[in-house]
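During the no-cost extension, the postdoctoral fellow (Dr. R.K.) reprocessed legacy sequence entries with the updated structure-token encoder. One reprocessed record is reproduced below for audit purposes.
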Amino acid sequence: MSKMTFQNQQILDEKRSQARFGGGAQRILQQHQKGKLTARERIEVLLDPDSFQETGMFVEHRCDNFGMRDKKFAGDGVVTGHGTINGRLIFVYSQDFTVFGGSLGEYHAKKICNLIDAALEVGAPVIGINDSGGARIQEGVDSLGGYGELFHRNTLASGVIPQITLVMGPCAGGAVYSPALTDFIFMVKGSSYMFVTGPDVIKTVTGEEVTQEKLGGARMHNTQSGVADLAFKNDVELLLETRRFINFLPLSNRDVLPLRPTSDPADRVDMSLNTLVPTNPNKSYDMKELIQRIVDEGDFFELQPDYAKNIIIGFGYMEGSPVGFVANQPLHLAGCLDINASRKAARFVRFCDAFSIPLVTLVDVPGFLPGIEQETSGIIKHGAKLLYAYAEATVPKITVITRKAYGGAYIVMNSKHLRGDNNYAWINSEIAVMGAEGAAEVIFRQECKDPDRKKEIIANYKETITSPFVAASRGYLDDIIKPQNTRWRICKSLKYLRTKSVNKPWKKHDNLPL
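Re-encoded structure tokens follow.
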């Protein structure tokens, strides 16, 4: 090796070492004091050991304004590259708060855009780790242009590759729209927040005083706004759960679904399900218990568990292959559909359909939530989102009615009329415009004043109208099943539906009721 070659290698090693040091020891210490990992530490926890291949390590900004010419850091405040999670290819970018507060400038944005372009070309998910003060003020319109380019990439990638955003610090102003355009958002309690306008601006404009946490913290976005999907107690927990979550997703819309070995028999019978639903129709039960009892090894990854609790969404495996679950939750609002539940489920259904993940819908719904607030807030349009999502979905769609399916909500929850592939009902379930007692009061108001006659009318109505055998006789149900056999009936359906193919009319795009 020549002396010049050796010197060049030393220079390269020194520059790499300097780049890996980010904004310097003091700023790294400050990051740790806040209970946060650095950009590179996060990547190390997220990806398989020694799998990360960095790109753009030596990229620097070209801004000369406000003394920026003398303030240059290799990488320009974001670490980009690819690696693996459990051996599967993943592209990742991680904003470095120790460099210009993680702010996004022209070349910072170009690095992220180049990463998404590469992920699209090879068909692999993008995980973005956000920890940024927002647009780099010194770069002006170049910074805004960078955000515009990023938003465009997010839109192009939507439905093609999974996009997951990990908000692990501040994310404010225009920066919030990149996470909003991605498929899933995970946050850290106490150290991450998202808002379009911060507390200071709000106080100046409206006079309202509010903290960052209350305005855009993880708790608010996971319980009230529905912007985020999950919140974790610290950086490490979030990153480890992201590793688990990615196992449920294909690498792209053209990739096959992941498979994993299971020792859980597909034909497993669970006798305890026969007593899951209370005999008293006014008593509730936990629908999550049903999901956990029918998925492989009881492994269910729930999303948005603290938002719109009257509906459950999440992923599980059935016979070694991932499935998306949508289920009414009787423990909250009796499982009624409302605005938030409809929006929550509709977006999930559309994601599953985009990536060919089969859908299992578990139904126990008394109808749409009544009330002035729901109507004036647009329940008609928002409820239609879920209806539309199910109607346009072409993936295998299986529905099980566990107790009741009343009114328009029966139709919306993946009924046979929306092209459900296999629609089942448990033996004691009811399907009708409304419950037998309410219907009797409407149709036979005078006769129901006699308690004995009322009981007779209700019994007759159940037999002739609400019985699942009536719906089955019309072809609206494919079968009436015993609760104990729910798992193996779903597994059988999924197995034969693997090759399902649907031809749809050509259209430029749909006009979803937004």
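The longest strand covers residues 397-406. The radius of gyration is 26 Å. The remaining legacy entries will be reprocessed before the final report is submitted.
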